[in-house]
Amino acid sequence: MTFAVEAADLLLLAQSRHPTDRERLLVSIIDLCDRADINEIAQPQVRELIGSVFLSIVAEVERDIRRRLAEKIAPAPWAPPALINVLALDEIEIAGPIIAASPVLQDHDLIRLLVEATLDHQIAVARRGRLNAPVVEAILRQEEPAVLTALAGNDTAEISTSAMERMVEHSRRIAAMRSPLARHPRMSSDMAQRLYLWVGQSLRSALIERFRLDPADLDAALALSVREAHAAVEGMPPAQAKSDAEREALEGRLIDKLSDAGQLKPSFLLRALREGRLTLFVTGISRLGKFEIDHIRRAIDSDRPELLALACAAIGVDRGAFPTILDAVRELNQGRPGGGAEAGRRATGAFGPFDADIAGVAFRKAVSTV
Fold it and tell me: Does residue 315 belong to any structural domain of this protein?
């Protein structure tokens, strides 16, 4: 077909108001754009003209035509942004292909959909391939269960370790997230141990096999969690659910297994604090630093937060993580170590320009005087 004939055909279609002709016009324009030089069609004035043509037609056509247009134009890199954003806010049957595949949609467009569009649109955003970290963060902030579940099943999304930990924590209350998280490629062994505590038997078996976890210790930890939950329901403090000796023995075995497997790391200690398990934190930090448990207890019961800071520095805790650890220990330990906010700020000086061994020696010397 010559250009003159094609142009004449498009003119006739543009003059018609019949739905079939409207659809043919849209498809013909798309085909014309697909055949055009990408550099020419990407020029702002050309793109703006194409957008104006599409928008003027789309405003008049029926739902089925808009749906077929969305399917046709979704993968096009030359598609006008204004048109793409209009279609992305249309009914989900129309918006779905656009949200899933359009390279024109930017992070700020997707975040706007999370704020302004329906739940179905938000789920479609969470399922979009290769989702960037800012959009993942926006989903996590909203804490919508159905959207979080869709994100959990998105293996290609840019999910950081911190974001993954938050998703695992959300799965405590959102059961639908657990199965996709158990299979997620970014799931770590530490996260799998947390997830184990609130999944069903089939998922527990999958986690044990995938991460080579020790079922005996995990089941012991699960039993402890159940006892503590029951104790809380009955109005008993969790610490009374088991004797201190039994608790320490159980947690000591868990720490031994993690240490033997090379999985005992500072991140585990922070996780223990987040779960409210102060004794597990004490046992873990003493094992990592080869400290006496009584010395760690003295440090956290003192009025000198720099003692805890030295112990943390000795096992490789990052300076930036210490304020979080100190706040968590104080919350679980009736405000100790004391000294207030100013002492807490001064304690970060323990993370000085010296190696971990020197911090360990300094801790042992300082705590012996407490």
Answer: yes
pLDDT value of position 248: 67
85 in any annotated domain: no
268-309 per-position pLDDT tens digit: 888 788 878 888 899 999 999 999 999 999 999 999 999 999
- Please give the pLDDT value at position 185: 94
Expressed as residue numbers, the domain containing 335 is: 265-370
Residue 330 near residue 302, CB atoms below 8 Å: no
Domain count, the chain: 1
Instruction: Tell me: pLDDT of 347 over 60.
Output: yes
Q: Is residue 130 part of a domain?
A: no
What pTM was computed for the model? 0.60
